[in-house]
Amino acid sequence: MTFYSKEEIAWQWTASLPSVAAYIRSFAHDFHDAQDILQDVSMAVVRKYADYDQNKPFVAWAIGIARNELLAYRRRKSVYRQFFDDESFEKIGEAFAAAEDDMDPVLEALQQCMKKASGKSKGLLQLRYIEDLRYEDIAKALKVSVGSIKVGMHRLRAALRNCVERRMNNARSVP
Amino acid sequence: MSDHWQNRIADFLDGSPSEEERVRLNEWIKSDPRNVRRFVREAMVHSHLHDLMKAEEAMNGGRSVA
Lengths: 175, 66
Prior knowledge:
The structure holds two protein chains of two kinds.
Chain A: H1 6-27, H2 31-48, H3 58-77, H4 86-98, H5 103-114, H6 119-130, H7 135-142, H8 146-173
Helix pairs in contact in A: 1-2, 1-3, 1-4, 2-3, 3-4, 5-8, 7-8
Chain B: H1 3-13, H2 19-31, H3 33-59
Helix pairs in contact in B: 1-3, 2-3
């Protein structure tokens, strides 16, 4: 039996964590559920590490484990509406593994773009991402229509998305 | 990509698509490999936003970040 150091597993897991977390959050829309799944995946990674083929990308292997945990979650909670069909589900997992190198640049760009966000925008993001509220609950909390929250979130995301793309394009064009 | 599809992806990630929207988004994802990558890019931003907002909250000692 081969033994692996804790440092080796920890290093690979830490590097892949943002991609695995983003993949899980694509389908587990409750952030608490997503965190529970992520913890289950991290434990499975440690438990099954001896099965990992070192000649293949670690992130693809870890996403494969996350895929199985997500399927178990879908069955357990009957959240079929949070998922696509098997073909799309597989393609998205593969695309996350292939896009691992984009995770850090997107994060760096987003950090800069967030500095420009207004207090109102930060308030919306707080309700969505910290309080984990859906559009309907945000509308109730702010005493406005669901439609206006939806439009506000769409505009906010579009502004952040455009800012991120612009920054990444500028970074690529720097020799 | 049109804002229409970006908004549909955002609604999906926020957990509020109608069944019809979910089915149409599923078909759109399968129709072109570029659409899969577009979905993944939007999901990356969604996930990073969660982490950044949580980090900002922690830095503020749990107080409002707005």
